[in-house]
Please model this.
Amino acid sequence: MIAHSIFFYFFSIIAVVSAIMVTVSKNTVHSVFFLILDFISISCLFIMIGAEFLGMMMLIVYVGAVAVLFLFVVMMLNVAQQKNQWFASEESSKHIPVGLIISILIFFELIIVIGGWKYKPDLFDLNNSITNASVNNTQSLGQVLYTDYIHVFQISGMILLVAMIGAIVLTFRKREGVKTQSYLKQISRERSEGVEVLDVETNKGVKIDD
Amino acid sequence: MDNMEYLNIIFQEIYKILLLLVPVLVSVAIIVWLDRRVWAFVQKRQGPNVVGPFGLLQSLADALKYVFKEIIIPSSSNKVIFILAPIVTMTLALIAWAVIPFSATQVLADINVGILYLFAVSSLGVYGIIMGGWASNSKYPFLGAIRSAAQMVSYEVSIGVIIINVLLCVGSLNLNDIVVAQKNLWFIIPLFPMFVIFFISALAETNRPPFDLPEAEAELVAGYQTEYSGMMYAMFWLGEYANILLMCAMGAILFLGGWLSPIEIYPFTLVPGALWLIFKILLLFILFALVKAIVPRYRYDQLMRLGWKVFLPLSLIWVVLTASYLFYFNLLPTN
Model:
């Protein structure tokens, strides 16, 4: 068990420190990299408690896809410069109360959840869940999501799809004057349209553009 | 357990890791040589044939040259991330080998979610490139990094869906189970279109020609590697080839039956499983090399169209087909 606790403290210290660094670091790109480090160490913690499927999903979805898009946006926008200007202006101090209220709310929510767990340990008892311990957690997750609660799961997927289409519709605009290439036109081009063989008379030449 | 036993376990594991990593690194060197030779033969050239027998030691000579070259770190670069980028690429390319099964027992970590681990590690591969491109603080590397980020994220999606196809037929995420499930029929036969799409997506995922837009030399000098030199460039290059080998191994395990021999009769069963796997990886790699020699580079919009509008719908439709077929004929794996 000693090795287990060493690894636990190793990963959790990295997770907490990098979470702090996300908010503290001045360079936005650095914060995204710290966020990625945070995700990775949290997925290591997931694997340590035996939830290997969740840990891998965390890596694939958050680190492999979401954080890449974060980085993409942050690098493109040159946020670092704007942020420094914003910090220097007086406007930034106006938002401090709102941020404070939100963070206090989240803090109390966490306390309530953890406190409730301590106070009534059998409220979210693992033994009460429908799955049994004999199958691995990939299978038990699949059992819950795709067999027991398939309709709820499908509806939540539908909601996400609607949100995605909505976002595309809202931001999509047809731009004028953009030159695009039609691949169908390119593929369906034949030799007879593209090449013409001409007999060129000496000293006369050929008129091409007509 | 006393301390000696802990140490024993640690030394055993380190020994096993070295036993895996050293051959992988050596085979990367050989693979680079093979790549250049195949490329040369397609173009009726000789390729590297001077250093050692058949030029086999060419990569070693190249590596030696890189070691003795000066590492230049641009003054306006972000130094920590600049140095980290090749290390990340190299590490990610090597740690994925931990789950590759060379036979029923010869596997470093026989974990339950092996295929997800492989997929996760290969999807992390994009970070080395983005970090290198951004930290160089220069136009060409940055453009290359952005191109490759978009490209790798797009093609990962279709690789994920293709993996779902295979998993539907297997019913387990363990790589050894995937291999054993192909005992009677390799998945390349029922899922042949998926194999083709997987192969092309693997080309795009590893930035190989015809999808080497991130380092298209005519437009971007050398893409994200432009500012790198010496050993750091060599690490990018090693990581890239280790990734290609890994993708070939993934293709061999998912579609070509991994360490299984093609026919289960006497002379073939004598050959150890590891050799069969290596043979299949080599076969796929030669295909990779041939594609590099034969096919011209894609345009970027064609690349994106292929990924999102052709491969993704096709592989999704195939998931539905596979699932319905298995369900209708009651072939769904149960365990």
Summary: The radius of gyration of chain B is 21 Å. DSSP finds 13 helices and no strands in chain B. The longest helix of chain B spans residues 3-42.
